[in-house]
Amino acid sequence: MQNFPGVGVSPGRIIGTIRQMPKPISEPLAGERLPEGASPEEATAQLKTAAKAVHDELKERAVKATGDGKAVLEATALMATDTMLIKGAGKLIARGTSAERAIWESGASVSEMLLNLGGYMAERATDVLDVRARIVAELRGVPAPGIPESDNPFILVAEDLAPADTATLDPNKILALVTAGGGPQSHTAIIARSLGLPAVVAAVGVDELPDGTEVFVDGAAGAITADPDESLRSSAEAWAATASLLAEFSGTGSTADGHLVPLLANVGGAKDAVAAAALGAEGVGLFRTEFCFLERDTEPSVEEQAAAYKGVFDAFPGKKVVLRTLDAGADKPLPFLTDATEPNPALGVRGYRTDFTTPGVLDRQLEAIGLAAKGSEADVWVMAPMISTAEEAARFASMCADAGIRTPGVMVEVPSAALTAEAILREVGFASLGTNDLTQYAMAADRQLGPLAGLNTPWQPAVLRLVGLTVEGSVAEGHNKPVGVCGEAAADPALAVVLTGLGVSTLSMTARSLAAVAAVLKTVTLAEAQELAKLALSAPSAAEARAWVRAKLPVLEELGL
Ligand code: PEP
Ligand code: MG
Description:
Number of domains: 3
Radius of gyration: 25 Å
Structural class: alpha/beta
CATH architecture of the largest domain: Alpha-Beta Barrel
Bound molecules: phosphoenolpyruvate, magnesium ion
């Protein structure tokens, strides 16, 4: 047995065989020529064979797929043998360019042309880039990029996953997610929790294991073991029984003594919202609106946006839905808002700040929200991401008022916002702590980097102190405004108890975590949660804060959390 310790980010114990996510296809060198003596005709024929192979493979997958996925695969398959794409490459080959470089350049010009056409055509631009990478992979004889295909469920191993990868991730085919990079706040972690898949991140060396290796994954302990023994097999079997217990949530979050802590869901669109409502979520604490438009190169129209937002509102009639305005930037670029060449995207023009450089988009989004809210029964709250100052909060509140939005709020994810919470909360109606970014900025540790996972945890006493300061600012003289948590911290049952003890009023998480958080929260009184919060704040390190609190919550061990 070989062990790969990592950071557990989504509970569950499972055994399965692994498939490695292929490395991205590197760009062929600019100016790369055909090898000495190679004939352009032969190179063109090889290119056509490769394109045909890509077409056939995608077509075969389309036959097995259903719904949206089927249509996307069919359209992409056709793109692989598109006359303009192949002819363009053929012309370059005739002038001596290598086949790989030729298809790369031809793909770039077809994609640019589609972008310029706008509308539906522009949406296909990224498909051409996907197809050209697949053809280059075929020419090189290496695996195609993207989630591997398999008839049997497998454990997906990757360096890290981007939000866009999730579009093709079939939760019925994936048993668990394991990454060599990524931190506890990375999008791999968020995706895994939302799909209810066990996951471990920052497990160095796991990306070197050959495809087909059998491994045991413990997503709570952060352990990966290759070639597991009998005792690990029994542990995986025992988990299957506990997992069914953790699938039930009564629909009311509270401590043992009846202190209510509404448990809300984080969603990325109507489909998530419907699933969250079915799992008993008491409302939506974070609607990541940018997730509706990750594939878009152009700004969606007001009507299109209103329809997407209304889909979420309609899943929660009479309930609170907290919508976040577009948080574009860093790991979630939106081409119509962000600049891909920024040297430090996480510290750049992202979230609310895109209004500095692309004014109008936020106004139109607020208009769309106002429109969707009018026709719905949900209690709509709207917050801006990446607010850093009270002036920004005041300006956002006035933009909301102009759009007829009654409850404006802010995310507290920049340390300056936590430190000045009192002034900020004078301007808006509520705050929601985005502990993922708050941790990355408080610790100056990129949330996507595996080697920084030890720093990048909301158990850091510094982060817990910022949470405490925000709550203090919310109850300061003159106001008493709700402060929730919508970062991944809320989905960690032990940390959920600490956050409750620190005074946060709601916890929002992926709907799959609701039952586990509710089960643990109801084992403590509010006074006990407050004691545990003090204990965590007094710990000298994140690891000790976590260990000390966990030791006082034996229910975690009982439930395998
Ligand atoms: C956060 O930063 O905690 C948050 C909820 O936002 P996101 O993860 O989308 O950046
Ligand atoms: Mg954030």
